[in-house]
Amino acid sequence: QVHLEESGGGSVQAGGSLRLSCVASGYTHSSNCMGWFRQAPGKEREAVAAIYNGGGSTYYHDSVKGRFTISKDNAKNTLYLQMNSLKPEDTAMYYCAGVREGVYCFEPQGEYEYKHWGQGTQVTVSS
Fold it and tell me: 108: how many CB neighbours lie within 10 A of its CB?
C-alpha cells in the first residue's frame, strides 16, 4: 500500500526557516512530477512547488519564489521543501503529492495530476 509521510513542520517566527520532508513507502516518487501543496484555514488547497520533467524543471507559486526550494533524494525516496524567510501567510497544512509511476504531468501545479497524497504537516509562522 502506498503511503506518504510528511514531517518537519512546526512553529517559527517570521523570517525563520523550516525543511519539510516527505518519505514514500510502497512507492517510489516519480521524478516526472512531485509536488507540495498547502491549505490555510478558510482557504482552498493550492500548489506551492513541484519538480517535474525528470527532475529537470520546477514550479513555484509566485508567493514563494526565491524563498522555497523543492528537491528530492532518490536514495532515501524522499521529497523535500526548504522554506526560508517564512511569512505569517505561509501558515498552513502542507501536503506532499506524487503522480503515478511513469506518468508525466502537463500542469505540475494542478491538483488533479496527483494520485498519491500524504496526511500533511502543520506549519505555523508567527509575526
Answer: 22
Place of cell 517510489: 28
d(CA 16, CA 98): 27
What are the tens digits of pLDDT across the range 56-78? 899 999 999 999 999 999 888 89
From residue 102, give the alpha-carbon distance in Å to each of 40, 62, 85, 98: 31, 28, 34, 11
Q: Which residue has cell 521543501?
A: 81
Q: What would the 3-class secondary structure string for the chain be?
A: CCEEEEECCEEEECCCCEEEEEEEECCCCCCCEEEEEEECCCCCCEEEEEEECCCCEEEECHHHCCCEEEEEEHHHCEEEEEECCCCHHHCEEEEEEECCCCCCCCCCCCHHHCCEECCCEEEEEEC
Please count the other Cβ atoms lying within 10 Å of the Cβ belonging to residue 37: 23
State the pLDDT confidence band at 4, using cuts at 50, 70 and 90.
very high
Rounded Cα gap, residues 117 and 127, in angstroms: 30
Residue 79: strand pairing partners: 22, 72
